[in-house]
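Memo to structure team: turn this sequence into structure tokens by end of day. - J.P.
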Amino acid sequence: MNKRVAVIGGGPSGLECAATLAKMGISVMLFDREAETGGHLKQWNELFPDRRSSTEVLHLLRENLQPDGIEIYSNTTVERIEKAEHNFTIFSHDKVSYSVAAVIMATGFDLFNATRKEEYGYGIYENVITSADLERMFASPEKLVTHQGAVPRRIGFVHCVGSRDEKVGNLYCSKVCCITAVKQAIEIRQLLPETQATCFYMDLRMYGRHFEELYNEAQVKWNVSFIRGRLSEAAENQDGSIIVKVEDTLTGRPLKMNVDLLVLMAGMEPSAFAPKIITNQPIAFGEDGFMLPPDPHVGNNRSGTDGLFFAGTCTGPKSIVETLADARSAALEVADFLKEMIN
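Reply from structure team:
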């Protein structure tokens, strides 16, 4: 019997799925559109809440891959997946097909395109950046300057960019933006002690263990300021700095503030790639656009199609810790499915 499993996506969930399956003696084909595995994790500097190096975590995930049980297809785009009886056929962009017994969709998420929030000026004003841009700057601290090359003295962080926003069609919370802003504000204060960091938030959602403690540390130890109010508009001054307009909803007063850098906390969106590749099997999607399991309580990794499984952020926003736990769960579901096929 064909016992090979295809894992579509080489991000954290895909890597953890592949490693867990291989440890159980199951052959895995891991398909990744990029040259290097790691997904969005490659672009991050430190992880919350313990500020652990993302490079260290990614190294461990790659190290867990067993070369004897896993075939990695990098720079390979899966164009479509078709099911026929008990097997799936994977068709790649280079016109090669592969037969497998089961498929795990570990296709991840897309980062919200901040240019859609024109009022914030991303892509228009040079000193408006995203949280992902800032992570790349952290990796090379000498680049932590404004577009004009000056050390920023005031940095603003805008929460919920592309999340909880009816205007862009995303009503859901991206779950990790608040804690990312807190983490990044602390990093700024550590690297640039003279720089003032201010977070503009709707309300703070600290979902994970030790997230609340990190938020308290940001205020007490690092003097990060938090202003409750949604940013209404950003404009550029002649010197390239950014003037922001926001209403402080706790005091009911409108505020104007100049910042040297404005950081937009871009949220997660459903992968635009994933829905296109399953051609002859129905997949349910929720109102938020993420893949929807038939039973999110006791079957979160199952798709409703025998042999097709979900893992990681393809079913909704998750932290790295949650993503890896979900990936291990998906691998166990696949192992149970293969045993049922044998019996």
